[in-house]
Amino acid sequence: MTPLKKLAVVLMLVLLSGLLAGCQAADHTMGLDVVGYNHTDHDIGDFSVNGEAGSFLARHEAHGMACCVSLPSRYTPGMSVTVTWTDTYNAHPQSRVVAVPPYTPEDSGAFAVHFLRNGDIKVFVTMHLPYPDQYPVTADEAQM
């Protein structure tokens, strides 16, 4: 092989490895279990996050766990998810876009979805079980 061909092959390999590294960096995601908490007076027949996971949530109950939702491993400002749910009889589907608060890869334990009594939905990535000081739901919101 001539020196010019060797140089061309080396340059192509360098360019390809750069392109592949860029693809891998853009595709870093993490799969999280989805845990639901229903603080309302009504059963939730089924719920999902971005069309994934979900389960039945009895009124005033917690831990409707399902697998999995995929999120980028690095938070980007303005992130949101779509939470969809039905009533007790899996009828009357509703959907809401909910902002995801900042998180780090170290937070990745579960994706919590809280259906609050006031009609709000609060979501976040957490590795904490409900109600320690680090959990981002206030005592008033958390009453079941």
UniProtKB/TrEMBL annotation:
InterPro entries tied to this protein: DUF3304 (IPR021733)
First and last residue of the signal peptide: 1-25
One Pfam family cited in the UniProt record for this chain: DUF3304
Keywords: Signal
The name this protein goes by in its record: DUF3304 domain-containing protein
Originating species: Dyella caseinilytica
